[in-house]
Amino acid sequence: MRHSRLHLFVVLIFVLQSFSAFAVKKSYVVYLGEHSHKPDVTVNDLHKVTNSHYQLLSTCLGREDAKDSIFYSYTRHINGFAAVLDEAEAEAISKHPEVISVFLNQGRKLHTTHSWNFLGLEKDGVIPSDSIWAKARFGEDTIIANLDTGVWPESPSFNDEGMGPVPSKWKGICQIDNKAGILCNRKLIGARYFNRGYETVAGSLNASLSSPRDSDGHGTHTLSTAGGSFVPAANVFGYGNGTAKGGSPKARVAAYKVCWPPVDGGECFDADVMAGFDAAIADGVDVISMSLGGDPSDYFKDGLSIGSFHAVKKGIVVVASAGNSGPAAATVSNISPWMLTVGASSIDREFNSYVSLGNKLHLKGESLSPTALPKHKSYPLIGAVAAKEANATVHDAELCQAGTLDPKKVKGKILVCLRGVNARVDKGQQAAHAGAVGMILANDESTGNEVIADAHVLPASHITYKDGVAVFAYMNSTKSPTAYITRVRMELGTKPAPVMAAFSSRGPNTITPEILKPDITAPGVSIIAAYTQATGPTGQSYDKRRVLFNTESGTSMSCPHVSGIVGLLKTLHPDWSPSAIKSAIMTSARTRDNKDEPMLDSTSNAETTPFSYGAGQVRPNRAMDPGLVYDLTTKDYLNFLCAMGYNETSIRKFSDRSYKCPKSYSLLDFNYPSITVPHLTHRTTVTRRVKNVGASGTYRAVVKSPAGISVKVDPVKLEFKERGEEKTFKVTLKSKTAKAATDHVFGSLLWTDDRHYVRSPIVVKSA
Ligand SMILES: *[C@@H]1O[C@H](CO)[C@@H](O)[C@H](O)[C@H]1NC(C)=O
Ligand SMILES: *[C@@H]1O[C@H](CO)[C@@H](O)[C@H](O)[C@H]1NC(C)=O
Ligand SMILES: *[C@@H]1O[C@H](CO)[C@@H](O)[C@H](O)[C@H]1NC(C)=O
Ligand SMILES: *[C@@H]1O[C@H](CO)[C@@H](O)[C@H](O)[C@H]1NC(C)=O
Ligand SMILES: *[C@@H]1O[C@H](CO)[C@@H](O)[C@H](O)[C@H]1NC(C)=O
């Protein structure tokens, strides 16, 4: 209902604007639903589709040359096209009966390898027999696609040593052929690029960039995290030395480059992302990893949501990053119920660099600076505000922004900079540029306890907010403060871990509050993985260093961890649906840390909630054998859209020509592996259905009630005689008091046969 109203509002604005028709041309996606090609679709059939798109546009606009404005025709699975139009034209075509939606080609943003050890897949380089790696043959022959900034094909992580012939189901191509010959192999089996949507916004790219080659580093890092081969003696400046590998080290990987150098509005545009999805589905991939996103919007006006729906319908699992807009609430992106949305948390490894102050205080920080200060001598310490250029503002200077620091004041000293606005590594560069010998990078209050090991260009240490306050207090207390920064030392076994990263985007879901997002969390802080040779480890143009491996932090890094785990589950259970795999990952997750205490939030150092971690920290060895799954079919997703108020005619075009919206369908009954009741009035009952994917057995319900809420499960026992059997149950939630808390409260529902623990978070807010 909410949507149809919104739609009306938009149309009104359109009408008003078309009076002052300035005819500004922009690129749009015109979405028509899905194709129903026969399996033996020919090139000729695809041409016919393209021609029908030309015709539709020409008829709509009443001119022959209309087809010239089309720059993509989606012909495989997604039906639609992308075209440069003015607003009046976009409005006209949106009225055509075949059209589901017309939306702007929006820009999105991009959001070692000890993490596998931390997740229990290996232990000190040895793979235990109960590891999913052993059982799932390292993800053998699963095909993982990555929609990102492309790939550096020469990276050792894409070596194809010991790999057999490319699986026959693969239909993709390799567009990296420059002069050196085709650079794909039996590991990196495909590489394509899509930039026409970007070029309509940013202008033509330098021809040398028109390739799937990764000039940024992000795509190489994420793809190798999901499916990189084994690479012995991988390290960053000697730190973290070990064997690098992805989650599915024996999977095949394919890069779909849809992200380009950032311009106003973003770096990955909807029209290109949709072209990437359409190609990847047709190419025969099993998993699509997507570490990018933007503000959530209407499901039918979001290329990421549309593309991923068509992929999931074909049995492909789509894993997406939650975004890096935390710790504020309601910041999570990629909220479609058919995506598996991943938040980011820390691992139990630190790259420590201690700060010793002149007052004998020792503070633990992190860094990956390859250089160290000359041995044990104290250096004068200065805050960036005291070191500012006369023309700079206090705020710009405290952040150590370019051109704000006075070299005369900084030279030979350790400079204290505040986190925020410009890149952490850029602050180090500005400090070095002004002549500092070292940098202390202090968190602000919102980033709290989250410290990150970056490859700074000078000796540096990133410290917590609390420690930063101690540094400032010390500087205030004396005329000539001094400090020393120790050489970086790797330490394992950090406790507590995981801790939720401050940057990880949080729920609630702003489009459909009945669906908890993110779904899961995985390692995303200081992750070592492969990198491009086109740029230095800080990604800044002044950084002339080149590294084969680099550390990066973000939900962009946690997303491919889960994609790699999905690759393993696909090898192990080729017949499981995307939602069964997602359910297995969610219901087997853990909400406690390595001290066996509730997971903390690095912002506040307090207990965190499902709004940051969803079902919890991914636990791959448990996901292999979840016992029960909450399965979903395409029909369930369509019912979900009906309940959201989408028009039945549009839903039919979207997926299933004969589909009928049910008479009544509650979003609360959507068979999701988590339970969220955003407006509890007195009493609410939700329905769920579980499918047995294990042996026969009896499961009983164990409830942890949210504060002030009573929870009744009916029945409390479920008996399964055979595999594949499904059982339905109801959960009734009731406010215990007349005047219930209006804040969110959290609990859980667990089904157990004493061998399996099938856990779902419960999130409730009283109306
Ligand atoms: C395009 O890129 C090439 C190689 O990086 C460079 O030599 C050339 O100057 C660039 N051209 C433009 C117009 O930027
Ligand atoms: C990394 O480890 C390998 C094997 O243990 C060793 O040969 C190599 O020298 C190490 N490299 C660094 C930089 O420590
Ligand atoms: C301030 O002045 C310095 C040197 O005179 C200059 O390099 C810098 O760009 C200026 N900064 C700002 C913020 O205008
Ligand atoms: C240090 O002194 C400055 C300026 O007087 C003040 O704003 C700041 O709050 C002080 N910081 C601490 C931690 O005492
Ligand atoms: C759905 O949309 C179509 C075309 O946009 C319209 O003709 C139809 O009346 C709508 N149906 C409902 C039930 O609103």
TrEMBL record:
Q: What is this protein called?
A: Subtilisin
Annotated region Disordered: the residues are: 592-617
> Which PANTHER family does the UniProt record give?
PROPROTEIN CONVERTASE SUBTILISIN/KEXIN (PTHR10795)
* Every Subtilisin-like protease fibronectin type-III domain range: 669-764
Give me the stretches of Polar residues compositional bias.
Answer: 601-611
Family per similarity comment: Belongs to the peptidase S8 family.
Report the residue ranges that make up the PA domain in this protein. 396-470
**Inhibitor I9 domain segment(s):** 27-111
All residue ranges annotated as the Peptidase S8/S53 domain in the record? 139-615
Recorded GO MF terms? serine-type endopeptidase activity
Instruction: Enumerate the InterPro entries for this protein.
Output: PA_dom_sf, PA_domain, Peptidase_S8/S53_dom, Peptidase_S8/S53_dom_sf, Peptidase_S8_Ser-AS, Peptidase_S8_subtilisin-rel, Peptidases_S8_3, S8pro/Inhibitor_I9
> What's in the keyword line of the UniProt record?
Glycoprotein, Hydrolase, Protease, Serine protease, Signal
This chain's source organism reads Stephania yunnanensis
Which positions carry the signal peptide feature in this UniProt record?
A: 1-21
